[in-house]
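Progress note, sequence design subtask.
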């Protein structure tokens, strides 16, 4: 059964007066792309497809899912990567070349609505591409075939492609790049055939991101919302669709505490009503109802309201949320080999920070195998590290970052010359209070 709105539009034949592609486009070649069968934890069973072979899978019939849960997507998730995985597991070490640029359209910008797949397709007429809806409502993905490039250049080339799309009037935020360049991208999935859209052009001018001007002026096709029309409830509903409920709810509840006389209980009743009416992601709602709501409620109830209003104020003039900061991202080179693959899987459906999971993994690995050592110059170095994970109590997900590492090593069997090694011992903590630290570690 073909999804009703899913179609690969006919190839566009250039007319005599058609504008010729700029120098940033080249003739399409056929590099290979690794495509894997479901589930997503299959990292070895792959087929190599050319762009003409992958294209029908991107614009064809989507996988129909019973629900939108992350576990369901992973179970039914046939997927591809941005290039060719050679002779080994799907990891960065075996990604020998990349030949796709992939943009996720999931966050609006400047008060605009997200572009639909059809709007994206029309803006990209004459350029080889595929664009399709994803299983998450209102989100979509654009895939461009490009000349092979090094995985180290992924961030730069993806940003250049994003800038090019913005210059065409496609208004969405840059989603960033995963530290793992061999990350999986699901072939189209949906929970609703009627809502699914897919379009594309298998042949045409091929984008060359290395020749694009990343400073291309952005062409706005709609007038953005003015600050005077700021509507926190509307912003909350938008944030529910593009981010985590916890983050959106904290921002909205903070605004309510600052600007109204409602009690914390009344504010959270309003949160629940808005979430129930406007959040269609069952997995996100389940997490909110399961633990996030109780934790955030407890945090707000423990606050001194006056202090909170001063430290987390939202400027009514600029609509600037002073508590929001761009989160630092660890360089992709840190996520190497098995440790990088483990961090990718451990954080795929988790709020844990990849940097924290990696640090805990390396420390635990060194503790478990502390005997091996190597000489660097005249110094002998053991595989022992120390790290400190810092974050706000009950909110920073420090424990969440450690749980997958603990589970991994507890399930491993260590044996050396038939003599079982002593297992590392852990303590749930805490190490001590601030006063206790001063007593234990005098200056």
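Output:
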């Amino acid at each position: 059964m073909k999804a009703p709105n899913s179609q690969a539009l006919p190839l566009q034949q250039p007319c005599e007066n058609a504008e010729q592609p700029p120098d940033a486009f080249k003739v399409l070649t056929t590099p290979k792309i690794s495509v894997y069968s479901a589930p997503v934890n299959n990292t070895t069973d792959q087929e190599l497809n050319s762009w003409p072979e992958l294209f029908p899978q991107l614009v064809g019939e989507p996988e129909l899912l019973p629900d939108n849960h992350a576990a369901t997507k992973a179970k039914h998730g046939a997927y591809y990567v941005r290039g060719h995985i050679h002779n080994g597991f799907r990891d960065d070490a075996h990604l020998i070349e990349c030949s796709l640029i992939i943009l996720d359209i999931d966050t609006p910008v400047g008060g605009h609505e997200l572009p639909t797949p059809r709007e994206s397709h029309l803006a990209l007429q004459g350029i080889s591409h595929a664009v399709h809806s994803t299983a998450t409502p209102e989100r979509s993905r654009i895939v461009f075939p490009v000349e092979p490039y090094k995985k180290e250049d992924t961030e730069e080339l993806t940003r250049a492609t994003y800038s090019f799309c913005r210059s065409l009037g496609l208004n969405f935020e840059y989603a960033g790049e995963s530290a793992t360049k061999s990350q999986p991208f699901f072939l189209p999935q949906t929970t609703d055939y009627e809502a699914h859209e897919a379009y594309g052009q298998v042949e045409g001018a091929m984008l060359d991101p290395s020749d694009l001007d990343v400073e291309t002026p952005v062409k706005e096709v709609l007038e953005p919302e003015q600050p005077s029309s700021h509507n926190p409830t509307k912003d909350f509903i938008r944030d529910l669709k593009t981010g985590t409920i916890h983050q959106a709810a904290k921002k909205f509840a903070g605004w309510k505490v600052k600007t109204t006389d409602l009690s914390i209980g009344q504010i959270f009743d309003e949160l629940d009503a808005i979430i129930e009416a406007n959040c269609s992601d069952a997995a996100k709602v389940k997490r909110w109802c399961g633990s996030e709501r109780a934790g955030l409620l407890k945090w707000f109830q423990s606050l001194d309201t006056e202090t909170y209003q001063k430290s987390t104020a939202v400027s009514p003039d600029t609509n600037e949320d002073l508590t929001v900061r761009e989160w630092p991202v660890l360089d992709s080179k840190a996520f190497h080999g098995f440790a990088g693959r483990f961090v990718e899987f451990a954080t795929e459906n988790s709020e844990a920070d990849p940097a924290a999971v990696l640090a805990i993994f390396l420390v635990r690995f060194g503790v478990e195998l502390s005997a091996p050592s190597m000489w660097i110059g005249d110094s002998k170095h053991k595989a022992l590290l120390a790290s400190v994970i810092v974050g706000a109590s009950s909110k920073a997900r420090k424990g969440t970052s450690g749980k997958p590492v603990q589970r991994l090593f507890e399930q491993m069997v260590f044996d050396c010359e038939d003599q079982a090694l002593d297992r590392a011992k852990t303590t749930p903590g805490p190490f001590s209070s601030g006063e206790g630290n001063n007593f234990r570690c005098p200056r």
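Confidence is low (pLDDT under 50) at residues 1-29, 214-229, 306-325. Work on this subtask will continue into the next period as scheduled.
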